[in-house]
Protein 1
Amino acid sequence: MTINLSNGTIITSEQDGILTIRFDRPEKKNALNRAMYSALADELERADRTDSIRVILLTGSQDCFSSGNDLADFIMAPPEGTDSPVFRFLTAISTARKPLVAAVNGTAVGVGVTMLLHCDLVYAAAGATFQMPFVSLGLCPEAGSTLLLPRMMGHQRAAELLLMGESFGAGTAREVGIVNQVCKDGELMAIARAKAEQLAAQPAASVRLAKALLKRDYGAELQETIAEEGRLFLDRLGSPEAAEALKAFMEKRKPDFSRFS
Ligand code: COA
């Protein structure tokens, strides 16, 4: 099924117990806008209550997984509060009871990376790149990443990725624990699909239970962190540094933060 939104699409299909959700807005590198976040939240919530769906597989289109939040939206239609579509999506993905598999087929930026921290199995094409440029945009990290990244890789490596905001390759993503397996570019979808099928064949109730137990000691703290980061993120969206960074992106130039202390 294609969920046609006024600006960007989400393509979903269901087969063998697997709900595949594909971001499909290639002309904007699959940047996620409000309508896409709403559609994603709807699909994740539907998956949770639909018995026939046992696994959710997330992927992108063409050469891109997702370039993250639509930066034009940050200017024209910023999230107004923690009940806005992006937060509905973050709640849905971070509380999903069913296993999430991601196939990162290309560029992943911003929430395109932080959503992977909520997935259970992540496969990346060898050519995929990853970047969390929240600080470089005058913003702050989101989606629970300040809790999940240091847990996963230790403070120094998390700080390097978040404070410097540089792009890194699939090999590094594997080394720091964001990715389970790096696949040859042409083999990614077949491998991710096969893993999703293998997972869908497992006893579903036991899979859900194991997932819940894996998150038991930090689930509540994760929701608090997402909410606190969200409040600070909304605040930073109104900062002069963010205004300069977003203007620079639109004008296709490097931002200049030298006048801000
Ligand atoms: N929001 C809105 N538009 C975006 C976007 C985003 N996050 N990412 C890319 N686009 C748009 C570009 O503005 C461009 O639009 P145009 O053709 O109308 O000018 C189009 O998508 C193609 O992007 P382009 O930058 O030319 O592609 P690229 O292959 O050179 O680079 C990226 C791809 C993803 C590395 C680069 O676009 C980028 O850094 N985007 C911003 C990512 C980001 O900061 N996300 C938010 C994090 S909070």
Protein 2
Amino acid sequence: MRLLFASSEIYPLAKTGGLADVAASLPAALGRRGVDVRLLMPAYAGVAVAAEAKAVARLGNPFGLGDSLLLEGHHPDSGNKLWLLDHPILFNRAGGPYQDAAGADWPDNDMRFALLAWTAARLCRAESPMAWKPNLLHLNDWQTGLAAAYLRAWGGARPGVVFTIHNMAYQGNFAAERVPQLGFPWSFYTMQGFEFWGRLSCLKAGLVFADKLTTVSPTYAGEIQTPSFGFGMDGVLAGRAKDLSGILNGADYKVWDPAIDPHLPQRYGPDQLVDGKAANKAAVQSDLGLDTNPAAPLLVVISRLSDQKGMDLLLAVMPAVLRSGAQLALLGSGDKGLEDAFSALAAARPGQVAVHIGYSEGLAHRLQAGGDLLLMPSRFEPCGLSQIYALRYGTLPVVHGTGGLADTVVDATFDALLNRTATGFVFDQPTASAFQWCIERAVGFFRSGEHWRPLQRQAMQQDFGWDQAAARYLDLYRSLRPNGAPAKSRRKAHL
Ligand code: ADP
Ligand code: GLC
């Protein structure tokens, strides 16, 4: 099985969220199962050096923006072969993968990611400058969605194409005039194609033209077929229901395990839970200027600050939660209004609220280890990785029961406590009052001490490693033949 796995971000080379973690660890798990995997991403500033990549081919100039090169290197952790799309004018910039340093989307994101998609498609074809050709193409999110459309537009032989939805809220919708500029016939710009409310939608291209669709949790797979979660594409998804499945993400426990985590002042496994948590909590409190009080419940948040993540609900409940004596340590960046509001809260409550606006891999790990509770009041959450990591660190998640949050956290109900399945605290409605009540319930458990350690131990024992998910992706790949024809039977489905 020869798999080309294309993503706009891959940890540790470029990361804005969970997609990067998945794009690093899923292909690594597939590689361990014998799949011949190549990764493809753009050569953002610094990436070629980190991946020790060298130019191996010219890719051409499809949109008249100048020549691009293909570089070949390897993933720094898994060692998987990595291809980089090198077009310095489009990708070698100071700033993030999608936005400039001030947080504005790059104005040419359409051309940047159309070129990434075009490259992914090109590498699957006889015209590819490389001898190695995939018989499976796995695309992720809107940034790669047009690859599925290119392969259809060009016709002829092509690999099976899987498109994974990590988030329906980001769609890559651009002006219709791009249709011919990107080399597509107008016949693709219809309701049955990639047209979406008068625009060219890269997400819809993936949804319509890929052979199989997946999303990152079973619950989200159902939710996105409804108007409340489909962001206008629920009808398209319902129409493809037989090709859509939900495969829960995994966690990479080589990166996220408190027993081996190099970022922590003190490492701990389940047997050192009490001392380990105490030491890490004290370190977080003193590093961030919080009162070093072991009895104060420490609530932590590690999150993009966006509407999705329900951060406005967090702001709304903070006055009451702080009155109860809890502390908040928040690491995040995103929406400027939310950044300012959380910074103002920290300034008003020194010693009780610490806010770090920005991105810090090390602090994310230390908060996972030092916190008592991790808050994720997301309005929707395709999977969510932070709560899965929190479980392993014995930091109990407080989550809205949606998407992957519902699939990974078991609420501490009476029954779940009794049969020892509980791992956290779940609330049903994304409202401030439901969230506040849930935090109070969780803090009640923390303060009473009863059940607290067993709950933490139960959380730490959960296994969300990638093996199970990798097996499901393999089954899906095996169900596909080149050109997207379904395999006749499992036994004959050699790829
Ligand atoms: P999403 O992908 O929607 O942002 P996930 O929970 O799937 O949410 O993944 C978030 C990932 O991004 C986790 O690895 C988390 O540690 C990381 N992360 C989020 N915000 C920050 C930040 N400000 N600094 C460091 N890591 C962050
Ligand atoms: C997206 C989703 C998040 C998911 C991640 C990885 O960023 O918002 O829920 O965990 O992708 O699949």
